[in-house]
Amino acid sequence: MAPERKPILLDFEKPLAELDARIAQIQELAEENEVDVSEEIRQLELRAVQLRQEIFSSLSPLQRLQVARHPRRPSTLDYIQAISDEWMELHGDRCGSDDSAVVGGVARIGGMPVVMLGHQKGRDTKDNIARNFGMASPGGYRKAIRLMEHANRFGMPICTFIDTPGANPNAESERLGQGEAIAYNLREMFQFEVPIICTVIGEAGSGGALGISVGDRLLMFEHSVYYVASPEACAAILWRDAGKAPQAAEALKITANDLKQLNLIDEILPEPIGGAHADPLAAAETLKSALLRHLTDLNNLTTQQRRELRYQKFRAMGVFAEAIAE
Amino acid sequence: MSLFDWFANRRKETSPLKEGQEREIADGLWSKCDACGVLTYAKDLRTNNMVCLECGHHMRVYSDDRIRQLLDANSWMPMDEQLYAVDPLGFRDRKAYSDRLRDMQGKLHFKDAVQTGIGRVDGLPVALGAMDFRFMGGSMGSVVGEKITRLIERATRERLPVVLVCASGGARMQEGMLSLMQMAKISGALERHRESRLLYIPVLTHPTTGGVTASFAMLGDIILAEPKATIGFAGRRVVEQTLREKLPDNFQSAEYLLQNGFVDAIVPRTQLKATLAQLIRLHQPVTTAPSMPVHRADVSAPNSLHHVVEG
Predict the structure, then answer these.
(1) Do residues B171 and A166 touch, judged by C-beta distance below 8 A?
(2) Measured between beta carbons, which residues in chain B are less than 8 angstroms from residue A129?
(3) What range(s) does the CoA carboxyltransferase N-terminal domain occupy (chain B) (predicted)?
(4) With respect to CATH, is domain A64-315 assigned 3.30.450.20?
(5) Domain definitions of chain A by residue range
(6) Is 3.90.1170.30 the CATH number for B61-282?
(7) Distance (Å) from the C-alpha of residue A101 to the closest C-alpha of chain B?
(8) Rounded-to-integer distance, Cα B283 and Cα B175, Å
């Protein structure tokens, strides 16, 4: 294990940090003065657990967004390495680039060969610059579809992991056809014969997220978010005031709970108290058992059934009214 | 003779009114080009599909104009006119979404940002969708997604080509993730249409951006665009923030996309109908044998069958 790193605290975690500090202080004082305070400590620790539970069970959408973007939140590569029996990363879109904002390769999970891929955010500033903060360029989407075509050819199920603030909005991506790259994936993912399970592990930003999210199942971690436009961008456009991001986050319905209620996702994966970054291995265990369960279900269907159900799943999305013609 | 001279002559012939021009402008009989400022007789401009006769500038047109310009007279059979948007999220920014919807539905004769239906282009049946930028910037919410999906599904069943005239700022934020998912829904319907080996031609008009570009706008078998239309994924201002140097002048224009290989042809509006008709004809299954030598035996066989059927 890496040496203990200083935790990165979100503003709403401050009361927890204060409580933890107080516990440590009392313990230190007790040791110095050789007094038994174990009962007080036990009480305080219990209180800390309760408080953590309370805070994390009632996060506002904007606070959830902060957890989803937490710099220590487990990334695609963390999960792949934790849940697969074996794994080999593959590179390149075969069109002249290898976008490191998207990673993928062949793996084995629960004894089953699969293709796993996803957006990859950096683990630190330097890594983040190299990976463009998980914002994929057209080459990233073309690499993803190339790997999925590979999976389809060899009958390997596909597991995708979504974690991006959005597709790369730079000039080069426009020149190389960002819109076309995403659109192509949306269409092609409907025709694959193998099972596809998509999991939002962090933040899922708009078309850049959707570009690898058309599947038989869409799972979301409890504190992950999925949005049509980032609350910041939405506030700037609709409210003409970026400061209105909290209102936008509320109005856009970006949390796993909201999206489950709208029937847009299949399952919410519970996170350890304090978020996935508080206990990445426990989060990975939850992910692995969910993936294996859904893979087993999907493997019981025929190719035709899977494709038809995948089509009907998206076909049913949308809320509108229809007046009876006079 | 320049186009302007030709037009000036024609105007002399067709417009006997010399004095009283001022009054006519006020009455909307004359139209001023946004690009070159030249005044044109509104009726002539309309006949020319709102393309300036002087400079070729394409003025903005809307779904009704598109239907009239592209389809044969009296061939339009609209579909799903009764679908209307609700406010599934109870969305309110500076104004409530439900109020925005009511305002737009009161101003226009259709209920959301696309009109869909079946019609004929030069006698050829097509499934046509025309987006309308006036309706909340042509944004795509559940109704746009549903109407376009139903159109494509019907085209697949009836083996019709699909033509979608795109004009949209992208997904409709007021419907949140429901809007984003329309991109996938429509792409799924296009996959089935494509699998049936049917022709799909999007026509990209000003502007085609965001989620529409990242889905059905870019999925055409053949992609046409109008001159100088803005077509892109990310907003220009967002792109500008990511770099220090200046963007090329034609950045995100139809011409820029042609240059980079993402559209097949830029077609002036005045030739759009004829071009669509030509392309649809070229992709029709060959029903009669092409002119090549045939053996007598081959000729007699269908003939005898013909007799049997008739008899």
Answers:
(1) no
(2) none
(3) 29-298
(4) no
(5) 13-58, 64-315
(6) no
(7) 16
(8) 38
CA B23 centroid distance within chain: 34
Contact A310, B189 (CB under 8 A): no
Q: Which residue has the tokens 């790193």?
A: A5
DSSP for residue B58: B
B182: phi then psi, degrees, rounded to nearest 5: -65, -30
Nearest CA in chain B to A182: B214
* Residues of chain A found within 8 Å of residue B251, distances taken between Cβ atoms: 171, 174
Provide the 8-state DSSP code for B222: S
Handedness of CA A182, A187, A190, A191 (dihedral sign): negative
B92 touches chain A (CB under 8 A): yes
Q: What is the pTM of this model?
A: 0.90
**Cα–Cα distance for residue pair A303/A103, rounded to 1 Å:** 27
For helices A76-83 and A280-299, angle between their N-to-C axes, nearest 10 degrees: 70
Q: Report yes or no: B166 and B105 within 8 Å, Cβ to Cβ.
A: no
B299 touches chain A (CB under 8 A): no
Is B166 labeled as ligand-binding?
A: no
B98 lies within 8 A of chain A by CB: no
Count of alpha carbons within 13 angstroms of residue A7, beta-carbon side? 14
- Which residue in A136, A216, A138 sits closest to A174, CA to CA? A138
Digit-by-digit pLDDT tens for chain B (311 residues) are 555 555 555 554 444 444 444 444 556 789 889 899 999 999 999 999 999 999 999 999 999 999 999 999 999 999 999 999 999 999 999 999 999 999 999 999 999 999 999 999 999 999 999 999 999 999 999 999 999 999 999 999 999 999 999 999 999 999 999 999 999 999 999 999 999 999 999 999 999 999 999 999 999 999 999 999 999 999 888 888 777 668 888 999 999 999 999 999 999 999 999 999 999 999 998 776 666 655 555 444 444 444 444 33
Record: contact A228-B93, CB cut-off 8 A: no
- Nearest to B113, CA basis, from B7, B211, B245, B200: B211
Report how far residue B167's alpha carbon sits from residue B156's, in angstroms, rounded to the nearest whole number: 23
Three-class DSSP category at B288: coil
DSSP A221: E
Tell me phi and psi for residue A259, to 5 degrees.
Answer: -75, -30
Q: Supply the ipTM of this predicted assembly.
A: 0.94
- Alpha carbons A244 and A236: distance in angstroms, whole number: 8
Q: Is B11 exposed, middle or buried (0-12, 13-18, 19+ CB in 10 A)?
A: middle
Determine contact, residues B21/B30, Cβ cutoff 8 Å: yes
A186 CB neighbours in chain B (<8 A) are 183-184, 187-188, 214-215
**Which residue's structure tokens are 């820029």?**
B256
